[in-house]
Amino acid sequence: MRRGHPSFHPREGESRHSTEHPPLPQEKGTCPPPGGRFQGRVGAPPRATGRWWAARAVPPRPRIARPAAQPRPQLPRPAERPARRGKRALPPAAGGGTAAAAENSPTPGGKRRLECKADGRVEVRVGGRSGGADAPDHASPPGAGAPGGEWVHPALVEGTAAGVAVLDTDLRFVYVNPAMARLNGVPAEAHLGRTIAEVVPGVDAGLGTLRQVLADGNTRELVSSGQTRAESPHRLRVWRGSCHRLEDAQGRVHGLGVVLLEVSDDREARAELERARERLQLLDTAAVRIGRTLELDRTCQELCDLLVEVIADVATVELLAMGGSDGRRPPDTDTVRLRRAALASVPGLREAVQQFGVPGEHVEYQPGSAVPRCLANGRPLAYNVPGDAEMGRSAPNSGRVSAYRAAGIHSALVVPLAARGAQLGTVTLVRAGSSPAFGEEDVAVAVTLADRAAISMDNARRYSRERGIAVELQRALLATPGGGAQPQLDVATRYLPSGASDLVGGDWYDTFALPGGVTLLAMGDVMGHGVEAAVEMSHYRSLLRVVAGDGDPPDLILSRMDALLTAAGTERPATCLLALADPVHGCCRFANAGHLPPALVDPHGRVRLLEVPPGPPLGADLGGPYEGVYMRWPAGDTLLLYTDGLVERRGEDIDASLARLAGLVLPHAGGPLDTLLARVVHRLAPEAAEDDVALLAARARPYGAVPD
After folding, report:
1. Can you give the pLDDT at residue 98?
2. Helix residue spans in 194-251 (DSSP H)
3. Which residues contact 703 (CB under 8 A, 6 or more apart)?
4. Bridge partners (DSSP) listed for residue 318
5. H or E element at residue 558
6. Are 677 and 646 in contact (CB under 8 A)?
7. pTM
């Protein structure tokens, strides 16, 4: 550039030796200095600035011949300011020069604002430096690099997927971009001059937030919801964005700028995740509260109680009879009979629902009613606010409609109970009064809980069937002891199955009258529970009868049984206590195979434990030996044999359990043996025992007494 060029004429008050120069043409493979300027005068040697470009020679700029008719335009001198690094390079301006020069060219006024035209267009205007005149940005040469050029409006505002709108101070539309027009389902021209409520009356636009921004100028987040005139798969559309106040250079308020994006998909996804989380929590609760025992009716009650807490006013469970028969007269043709296993309701409906049946009763349903239809198709059925005719068809019988109306019942939901391919029954949910009708989410929750509970019910049903078989087998095997007892010996027995939490065990007892006026008393416990333990118990009793017939002492009997069981490879070891009672001579011989010690109850009711050293259990393949113990048996004392279910408690040391037995004082201990056993059970196992309880009491009769 020539020194005599008009652009080098200094302004008033400036030195002509300014250090600001336009950037030089960039050589291939080199970079221009940051900010597009060098230090020092043109043609002068570079200063030792310590920068990488300071040592490079500055080549002279080539002369450019210009026609006389087109003088080079005079450009305003840039203001003194530090170079800005990291600025994105812009393409050369139309009038020549480099991108760096365009970037550093002055922007008149420096302050931009959004101006709304009457035709709906929005222009970014910039305040001028001299005279304060305003000029629109797009008046600058295209591509000059000043933010707000003509290319910004279509690329940024009209091309964005976000809805952009400009509202005046009366909150009327003065501009909307195409995205906003599509969101609202209304052409852009139809927005102008109208309020939000006039354009989209079904939208909650947050007018309070808009007025706050208009009042104080603070930018705020805006959340809007509702339905516009555009078609949408969402039942409720949600938008999220921000709202800004628009001012001119003099601070005058012209309106608001609003930018919105639809977040309906995100909201629905979060809502679905929240529903899934709630269902998981509900399943966790159901896993803890349903199926805590193996009692079928109690499991049904636990389900009803949880349903009333969560989604129903009344809940009932009706079950089909196990095995297809309940022992009653078959119902009429096409009539379905179920047993009501459980019922729960909110406090306000407890008296009203009692007239519809209580747990334990049988309910007969007319053909085509809700429960038989649910059992037939295996799908839930919902009846929301049915008419009297429809309610009469869905009820067990049409005569209940008036009672339903009187109780305020308006909606019902019937869900099948099935597990492992077998129908168990149904669960019925009812809503009354001000409760809403059942929705899809309620149906999903009810089905989830019913499926979870059905598994527990099926487990309880299977357990009840197996337990019933085992108890009957156990009672049948223990009904008549082997060879009875000698006439001089009074014997009483008692067997109590375990509580509902466990299957029946392998507890057993037996008595054998042997030659010489002696009687063999046996008390044993096969490890395990269920039918298998009961069957194995019968094997032990049969083996004992065979081995004891030779008249050997108790310790030898146990040794022979252990050898035979070990050779046979039994899978269920057993404990066993043998007592060879001799009432005539007032003595008794004992041998113990891992069982609890016997006890002696004197006529005053005091209990004393007898020390009989325990050997290994039978069939454990531990090789004995067993020790025989001889003890006196005073007249009037009662010998007591028992299994561990009488004294053992979970979490308690066995010594403490035995001490509790030894500390008993039983009144009227000299009375009937059955009464004595009842008192022992009442003191030590007043509720359902955790394990089976077997008891055997023996007492010598006075000389010459005649047995009953």
Report:
1. 37
2. 196-199, 207-216
3. none
4. 340, 426
5. helix 554-568
6. no
7. 0.50
